[in-house]
Amino acid sequence: MSESRLESPSLAAPAARPRVLSGIRPTGAAFQLGNYLGAVRHWAAMQDEAECFFFLADLHALTEVPDPERLRARTRSSAAELLAMGVDPARSAVFAQSHLPQHAELAWVLGCLTGFGEASRMTQFKEKGASSSSGATVGLFYYPVLQAADILMYQADSVPIGEDQRQHLELTRDLAQRFNARYGQTFVVPGPYVGKAGARIKDLQEPGRKMSKTIGGAGTLWVLDEPKVLMKKVRSAVTDTGREVVFDVDAKPGISNLMTILSEASGTPVDDVQQRFAGAGYGDFKAAVADAVVELFAPVRARYAELMSDPGELDRVLADGAARAGEVAETTMAAVRDRIGLLPPSVRVPAPL
Ligand code: ATP
Ligand code: MG
What are the per-10-residue average pLDDT scores of the chain (353 residues)? Predict the structure, then answer.
């Protein structure tokens, strides 16, 4: 391998705009409030200043062993939800992960550079593996490596994800540095996690854990829930002892979570929320939280219904996104295959003399 090729940073995105990549699994009944506030809302906001790639992580969804028909339908409806939440396919590439086989290919390559102990330390694996009724699978164990492949494939400068994914991003950075050190500069090392305090939304019934679309239940606010369902769920949210609306995550996890939700949904600092409800009861406070969430989701529901009335158009969006993403993915993989020493399929091995 020539020195000049080793040093060439040409795989990186053109410097004009940073490149951003993020994904979401087409699992659960719909996307939930945490997905919107912790991730998709930020995606929608950065589409002008960054070159964005957003994908539906259908390969990652397989760790839940979904029903095949359901996964297919959910992948398309997830595309509609993303668009309804503000992702714009005219500005961003929106695609299904499985449409680009390079993701699974790169995951294998990176897996061969990942320590077993290193992967074993991933807390999501430990948590999800422990709670899975059928036991942890190799797929679940491999999940962070596939996620690293998703990110590094696009030479992303930054990865807007929720706080729950911070550890996986650290692994991704380590793997990029390791690959570059061993094989020469190939991957952009993405920036570290930068999150805003409070962006992690907790389950309304069990505020000790994050809201999650695969767990679902009465403590999950779906972006497609009807207003009266949202109101009921917020009204039934577990609260804490005492009557004060005070932000204290340890002593009052339920109320603090609702305060975070109201703050994020209405764009009001938590301190202001606390001041506004000083002396008010939990009832008035919960009504305000419910109103803010209903208002936040109303346009999403309306736009979703419009988009779902034209599935052909959604498929065209995904095909167009895959074509745009595929150009970058194939450029990266051609370099990776070369650097790690895979024989190109077009080369004929000379017969022995
Ligand atoms: P699943 O239960 O299928 O893992 P999930 O709700 O955790 O679903 P993901 O598809 O894993 O959703 O993640 C999509 C994005 O949403 C990620 O960037 C993740 O960090 C973010 N996210 C998920 N849940 C929350 C939450 N409760 N608060 C903030 N961000 C979240
Ligand atoms: Mg998750």
Answer: 43 79 95 94 94 98 94 97 98 98 98 96 85 81 97 95 89 98 97 71 96 95 98 96 92 96 95 95 96 98 97 97 98 98 82 74
Closest-lying ligand to the alpha carbon of 24? 1
Q: Binding site for ATP: which residues?
A: 25-27, 34-35, 162-164, 201
Can you list the domains of the chain with their CATH numbers? 19-197+311-339 (3.40.50.620), 227-307 (1.10.240.10)
Clarify whether 128 is annotated catalytic: yes
C-alpha 121 to ligand 2 mean position (Å): 17
Q: Is the C-alpha dihedral spanning 65, 57, 320, 318 positive or negative?
A: positive
126 is catalytic: no
3-state DSSP assignment of residue 349: coil
CA 107 – CA 91 distance, rounded (Å): 27
Distances (CA, A) of 146 to 171, 214, 340: 11, 19, 18
Catalytic residue at 228?
A: no
**Cβ(109)–Cβ(340) below 8 Å:** yes
User: What Rg, from alpha-carbon coordinates, does the chain have?
Assistant: 22
